[in-house]
Amino acid sequence: MLRCRDTMSLLHDYLEGTLDPDLRRQLDEHLADCPGCLGFLNTYRHTVSVAGDFRSEDIPAELRRKLRSFIKQKIEKRSLLARLRGKLRGSSS
Amino acid sequence: MTLPADPPQDAELVERLKTRDEAAVETLMAHYEARVFSLALRLTGNRQDAEEVLQDVFWQVLRHIGSFRGESKLSSWIYRITTNAALMKVRGRPGRRELPLEEALGPAMSPDGMIAEAVPDWTRLPNEELERKELAQRLAAAIDELPPDYRAALVLRDVEGLPAAEACEVLGLSLPALKSRLHRARLFLRKRLADYVTARHPALTRSTPRSDDAALP
């Protein structure tokens, strides 16, 4: 018989679908009979789901431009330095 | 037949990046910039910091691409650089260093291990009484309260949706260690939301539903 205290540490694996089938059955039975644990599971799951809302597939156009100009500048500076080093080596040999 | 444009093939892209091929640099940025920015923004909780992390990450990737051996996926490597750069920004800030223990983040228990208080199940409230947006605002504030290591586990898994194995690779953690951090972070956030909802809807703690009308998962 599962106690409420036992269910708390099973929530992660339960949502992940990685809980041992026998334990999962026991937890399902407990949840069917325990509104407190069911409420806890529902709100735990909902918290995870709302966190997913923060995922963004967008980036402001202005930031995209700034990033490109920053990287271009860095690459140019680096290749200029490399050319200068090459020249210095050439003139000293 | 058209081939999918995404994701770019790691090995080929990496080889082209090593020669500073301009089109490859653009492919890299176009494919990863939104993800890097989204991750940096949620880890730092600050737009200015996230912008700096974004630029820093792509420059680090280009500078160190020669040492990328392909032992992990390119995406995992980029996530790792992003996570490290973002956590550098937050580590010095004042804030929580630890989370309360698991027991303190769950409901009160009786000595025989059964729940001893009403658990407010806000998912049973109608949308007009509690908007998802409102909860999201509270959640953003609570994520900013998480200690950096817990925040990283939660953001990679629950916000960015990385599979557990990839999140472990990014954070250099074993699966049990990741699971433990993630679970405690979720418990902390759930508690923050529960406290907020309870203050707004005190009736929720008085009306524990009967088991026969509770929605089963």
Report the sheet with the most strands of chain A, covering strand number, pairing sense and barrel closure. none
Kindly provide the name of the CATH class of the largest domain in chain B: Mainly Alpha
User: How big a fraction of the residues of chain B is strand?
Assistant: under 5%
Mean pLDDT of chain A: 92
The domain tally of chain B reads 2
C-alpha Rg of chain A (nearest Å): 29 Å
Q: Which structural class is indicated by helix and strand composition of chain A?
A: mainly alpha
Q: Using DSSP, what is the number of strands of chain B?
A: 0
Main pleated-sheet profile of chain B: none
Residue runs with pLDDT of under 50 for 5 or more positions of chain B: 1-5, 209-217
Helix content of chain A: over 70%
Give the helix proportion of chain B (percent range).
Answer: 55-70%
Write the element-wise H/E pattern of chain B from the N-terminal end onward: HHHHHHHHH
The count of DSSP E runs of length 2 or more, i.e. the number of strands of chain A, is 0
Which regions of chain A have little confidence, pLDDT < 50, spanning 5+ residues? none
The greatest interface here is: A-B, 49 and 61 residues
Q: Let me know the CATH homologous superfamily of the largest domain in chain B.
A: Winged helix-like DNA-binding domain superfamily/Winged helix DNA-binding domain
In round numbers, the mean pLDDT of chain B is 89
N-to-C CA distance of chain B: 41 Å
What characteristic shape of chain B results from the CA principal axes? Answer: elongated
Structure, described:
The complex is a heterodimer of chains A (93) and B (217). By secondary structure, chain A is an all-alpha fold. Chain A has helices at residues 4-8, 11-16, 21-33, 35-51, 61-92. Mean pLDDT of chain B is 89; it is low at 1-5 and 209-217. Chain B is elongated, with a radius of gyration of 21 Å. Helices cover 61% and strands 0% of the residues of chain B. Chain B is mainly α and 217 residues long. The chains are: A mainly alpha (93), B mainly alpha (217). Chains A and B meet through helix 1, helix 2, helix 3, helix 4 and helix 5 of A and helix 2, helix 3, helix 6, helix 7 and helix 9 of B.
